[in-house]
C-alpha cells in the first residue's frame, strides 16, 4: 500500500506549486489526496500562475483547472504520512476554516512532516505552530512568520529550509528542493 500525503489547496492556488509537487510525489509512489474545504473528490479548483517579470511583486495569470482527489470532510490525519500546503492566494482564505486549523495542528502534534511553499505559511501562522521554528516563504509573508513567533529565513527562490518536521520554500522555483526535502522527512532516499 502506498504512503499517503495530504495536499491542502484551494481556488487560485499557485499552479506550479500544486501540479508539480502533486505529480512528483505520485511519480515517487505516494498517494496524494488533494483536498479543499467544501469540496469533494472530482471537484475542480482553479489555479493561478505567478511569475517574476521585473515588477516589485509577482504577476498573476489564470492557470489550469485542477481536479481534487479526495473529500475534505473525510480527512483523517492518522492515515497520512505528511501534509503539503500549496501557495498562491488560497492560503489567505483557507486559514479561515476551523477544520483546516485543526488538521494542521494535528500534523504538528503528531510530529509528522509538513511542507508549505510560498504563501502556504500563512496557514501555519494562523495555526500557532511556528513558535521557535525557522521557516521561509514568499518574502511579503516573512513578517507573518516573525509575528507568529517563528524565525523568518531569507532563502534563495529555488531553495528549501528544513527545521525538524517542517520544510518550507519561497516559491515555485523551489519545487524540486521542497519536494525532495519533504519526502526525505517521510523516509525516502533522495539525493540532490
The oligomeric state is single chain
Listing every helix as H and every strand as E from the N terminus to the C terminus, the arrangement reads EEHEEEEHHEHEHEEEH
Q: pLDDT under 50 segments (min length 5)?
A: none
- Give the fraction of residues assigned to helices: 25-40%
Rg estimate, integer Å: 15 Å
Q: Going by CATH, what is the homologous superfamily?
A: Class I glutamine amidotransferase (GATase) domain
Q: Approximately what portion of the residues adopt beta-strand conformation?
A: 25-35%
The separation of the N and C termini measures 26 Å
Give the integer mean of the pLDDT values.
96
Major pleated sheet: 6 strands, mixed
CATH architecture grouping? 3-Layer(aba) Sandwich
User: Could you give the order of strands across the largest sheet?
Assistant: 3-1-6-7-11-10
Number of domains: 1
Written account of the structure:
- The protein has one domain: Rossmann fold.
- The chain contains six helices and eleven strands.
- The longest helix has 13 residues, at 15-27.
- Strand 10 and strand 11 (166-169) form a beta hairpin.
- It has 192 residues and is α/β, with parallel strands linked by helices.
- The chain has helices at residues 15-27, 90-94, 98-109, 121-126, 142-147, 175-185; strands spanning 4-8, 13-14, 31-35, 44-51, 59-67, 82-85, 114-117, 134-135, 151-152, 161-163, 166-169.
- The strands form three sheets. The chain has a six-stranded mixed sheet with strand order 3-1-6-7-11-10, sandwiched between helices.
- Helix 1 crosses helix 6 (175-185).
Helices and strands in order:
Blueprint (H helix, E strand, L loop, with lengths): L3 E5 L4 E2 H13 L3 E5 L8 E8 L7 E9 L14 E4 L4 H5 L3 H12 L4 E4 L3 H6 L7 E2 L6 H6 L3 E2 L8 E3 L2 E4 L5 H11 L7
Parallel strand pairs: 1-3, 1-6, 2-4, 6-7, 7-11, 8-9
Antiparallel strand pairs: 4-5, 10-11
Helix pairs in contact: 1-6
Amino acid at each position: 500500500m502506498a504512503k499517503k500525503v495530504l495536499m491542502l489547496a484551494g481556488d487560485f492556488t499557485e499552479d506550479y506549486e500544486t501540479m508539480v509537487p502533486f505529480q512528483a510525489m505520485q511519480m515517487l509512489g505516494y498517494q496524494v489526496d488533494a483536498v479543499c474545504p467544501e469540496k469533494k473528490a472530482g471537484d475542480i479548483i482553479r489555479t493561478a500562475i505567478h511569475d517574476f517579470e521585473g515588477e516589485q511583486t509577482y504577476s498573476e495569470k489564470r492557470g489550469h483547472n485542477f481536479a481534487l482527489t479526495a473529500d475534505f470532510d473525510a480527512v483523517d490525519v492518522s492515515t497520512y504520512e505528511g501534509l503539503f500546503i500549496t501557495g498562491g492566494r488560497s492560503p489567505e482564505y483557507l486559514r479561515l476554516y476551523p477544520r483546516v486549523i485543526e488538521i494542521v495542528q494535528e500534523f504538528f502534534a503528531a510530529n509528522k512532516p509538513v511542507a508549505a511553499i510560498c504563501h502556504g505559511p500563512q496557514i501555519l501562522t494562523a495555526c500557532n505552530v511556528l513558535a521557535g521554528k525557522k521557516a521561509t516563504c514568499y518574502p511579503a509573508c516573512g513578517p507573518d512568520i516573525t509575528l507568529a513567533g517563528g524565525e523568518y529565513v531569507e532563502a534563495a527562490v529555488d531553495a528549501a529550509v528544513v527545521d525538524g518536521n517542517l520544510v518550507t520554500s519561497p516559491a515555485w522555483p523551489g519545487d524540486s528542493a521542497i519536494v525532495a526535502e519533504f519526502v526525505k522527512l517521510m523516509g525516502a532516499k533522495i539525493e540532490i
